[in-house]
Amino acid sequence: MRRYLLTSAALAVMAGATWADDAALLLGNDSYERLGSVARAADVLDAANGLEALGFSVTSLRNGRVDTTATSLAEFAAATAEADRIVVALSGRFVTDGKRTWLLTADAAEPSLLTLGSTAVSVDSLLAVMAGAAGEAILLLGVDTEAAKYDPWISAGIGNLPIPQGVTVVSGSVRDVASFAETVLTQPQEDIVPYFEDYGLTATGYTPRSHVIMPMRPSVVPVPQTPQVSDTGADDALWEGAQALDSADAYRNYIRRFPNGKHIADAERLINEIMTEPNRQDRLIEEALGLSRDARREIQRDLSLLDYNTRGIDGIFGVGTRQAITNWQQENGYSQSSYLTQDQIARLDAQAARRSAELEAEAERRRREAELLDRTYWDETGAVGDEPGLRAYLDRYPDGVFAELATDRLAAIQDGKRRAAEAAETAAWDRASGVDAVGAYQEYLSVYPEGEFVGEAQARIAALTEEQEIAPELEAAQAAEAALELNALTRRLVELRLGQMGLSPGVIDGTFDDDTRRAIRRYQTNSEVDGVGYLNEATLVRLLADAVGNLGR
After folding, report:
1. CA atoms within 13 A on the CB side of 81
2. Beta strand pairing status for 85-92 and 137-143?
3. pLDDT tens per residue, range 510-542
4. Which of 64, 45, 46 is nearest to 5 (CA)?
5. Average pLDDT over residues 215-234
6. DSSP 8-class letter at 378
7. Is 118 within 8 Å of 60 (Cβ atoms)?
8. pLDDT in tens, 470-485
9. Is the pLDDT of residue 365 over 50?
10. Sheet harboring 56-62: ordered strands across?
11. Which of 141, 193, 247, 466 has the fewest CB atoms inside 10 Å of its own CB, making it the most exposed?
């Protein structure tokens, strides 16, 4: 079974070891892979030089993970076998169940009492080791101030420590503890008690009024040291290999092999990036594709055709596009990373092409059905040629197959009525039609309730009333089309596509006249797309699914 670091198995290493008389352990974790950073927690390691100058055998480790922390603890445990003085300084994230306390290693996940395992250093066990130097043992705890409740049994902070007799425990912020350790604790023959209050520290356990723990600096005859030549070639080679693999384990392996290597800072940074960005590898794969702005627009068009809302087709992969990609990946059995591979792009494009063909076929089927109903209705109404039939047809199919013919025939009927009408009525009608307003036509009807132009007046009143009712919708539709900023080429392409579908858009010249508007309305009706004869994004995507795509390639 995995156990908390520094248990009886680690303590057994002490047997038979011969080390310096004094031992120190410094652990500072300022960069947690999953739990964020603790600013200045590693500053406590700055006390190492001062302690070594006082004759301590110092074991120090920054951002120790499970394996390197276990090695350091075993080394420290061996050094305490015959130590007269013991100094332990721990700084970083602590957790407690109220009675026991642990320091989390740099690779600890979200802690839970039942799963702490070897990712936690037992402070209680360290205190047990320190009991062997009663009166000459001091434990410094630089505690992260962030409060957190991890599960129902443990929370952030320090619990009620079981401090052995003769052991002094000093706690405070990571910055104050580090400053005290470097500037006060390492001074020979210094009474440390007066400084606790100065540094804002709390002392518990063995707390005499005066406490001088450090000896005089030993007189040491300098021994010529053979310069240590670091294996920079092996360092660089392993670093290049870690970069090639670009994984957290590869960078951890580099740190294990070269704890003071040239690339430690980069290794820690990359581990942090990988752990905080689960889909980092997927992002790098997509970035390597070098997708152009047009290619990104094509992907957005494909997603839109498949009913995944990208919130715009602008070639920018924002939150909307990433969510659309994620939804598409979920539906197609891919990992939901929100980033695309070349294979996924190819499949997406194929699906969109198929969907485009299906939509076009469906639109054509609807057009034929609508035309059949249109012709049937014409045969029963407008084909007879009288005014009521023509008006009935135009009322049902204002943009129908025979709309132009019906309009022309009604105009001819009106001309005939004009010739037959009395001059006064004709003048009244001309005035009303010249103003072309509901009030003008109502005035005509009030004077000539049985006049020759009653039908035309009633029809215009109905038409003008409807125009007033849909005016806001029409204005919004015009604004939506203007926002598309269509160039002349795209406008001609729209007219060409409408013509290919048999919707009679008029002259293919890039100018959207009445014929073009009628054709657009017909297309929107056949395709069941909202619209009143003006293009919107949905209509344009459906209409130009293939044409615009081919043009963009």
Report:
1. 15
2. parallel
3. 899 989 999 998 898 888 888 888 998 888 888
4. 64
5. 58
6. H
7. no
8. 788 888 888 988 998 8
9. yes
10. 56-62, 22-28, 85-92, 137-143, 167-173, 202-205
11. 466
With the C-alpha atoms ordered 402, 407, 408, 414, is the resulting torsion angle positive or negative? Answer: positive
Give the chain's length: 553
One-letter identity of residue 142: G
Q: Residues 44-72: what's their mean pLDDT?
A: 91
- Which of left, alpha, beta for 513 (phi over 0: left; psi -120 to 50: alpha)? beta
Nearest residue to 5 via CA among 71, 95, 80: 71
Q: HSE (CB half, 13 Å, CA atoms) of 438?
A: 8
Tokens of 8: 């009886």
Enumerate the β-bridge partners of residue 202.
171
Q: Which amino acid is at 139?
A: L
CA separation for the pair 141, 202 (Å, rounded): 10
pLDDT of 451 reads 83
Q: What letter would DSSP give residue 531?
A: -
Residue type (1 letter), 175: R
Structural tokens at position 380: 């029963």
State how far Cα 185 lies from the chain centre: 47
Q: Which residues contact 498 (CB under 8 A, 6 or more apart)?
A: 504, 505, 516, 519, 520, 523, 543
Helices (H), 277-318: 280-288, 293-305
Supply the pLDDT for residue 5: 55
- In angstroms, rounded to a whole number, what is the distance separating the alpha carbons of residues 274 and 526? 51
Give residue-wise pLDDT tens across range 203-212. Answer: 999 999 998 8
User: Considering only 14-18, 24-28, 100-104, 380-384, which range has the smallest mean pLDDT?
Assistant: 14-18
- Asked if residues 55 and 218 have their Cβ atoms less than 8 Å apart, the reply is yes
Find the radius of gyration of the CA atoms of the chain.
42
What is the predicted pLDDT for the residue at 426? 84
Closest CA to 277 of 212, 220, 338: 338
How far is the C-alpha of 327 from the C-alpha of 304, rounded, in Å?
A: 12
Fill in the DSSP letter of residue 20: -
CA neighbor of 533 nearest in space, from 475, 490, 462, 469:
475
End-to-end distance of the chain based on CA atoms, in angstroms?
60
Tokens 């951002």 belong to residue: 63
Q: Give the pair of three-digit tokens for residue 21.
A: 């008389």
- Kindly state the helix (H) or strand (E) to which residue 33 belongs, with its residue range: none
Q: How far apart are CA 217 and CA 483, in angstroms?
A: 80
The 3 state secondary structure assigned to 431-450 is HHHHHCCHHHHHHHHHHCCC
Distances (CA, A) of 375 to 69, 386, 500, 504: 86, 17, 20, 16
Return d(Cα 423, Cα 274) in angstroms, integer.
89
Are 199 and 184 contacting, i.e. CB atoms less than 8 angstroms apart? Answer: yes
Mean pLDDT of the chain: 86
Is-contact 267 249, C-beta < 8 A? Answer: no
Amino acid, single-letter form, for residue 344: Q
Residue 47: CB atoms within 10 Å:
28
Three-state SS for 167? Answer: strand
Report the helix count and the strand count for the chain, using DSSP H and E.
22, 12
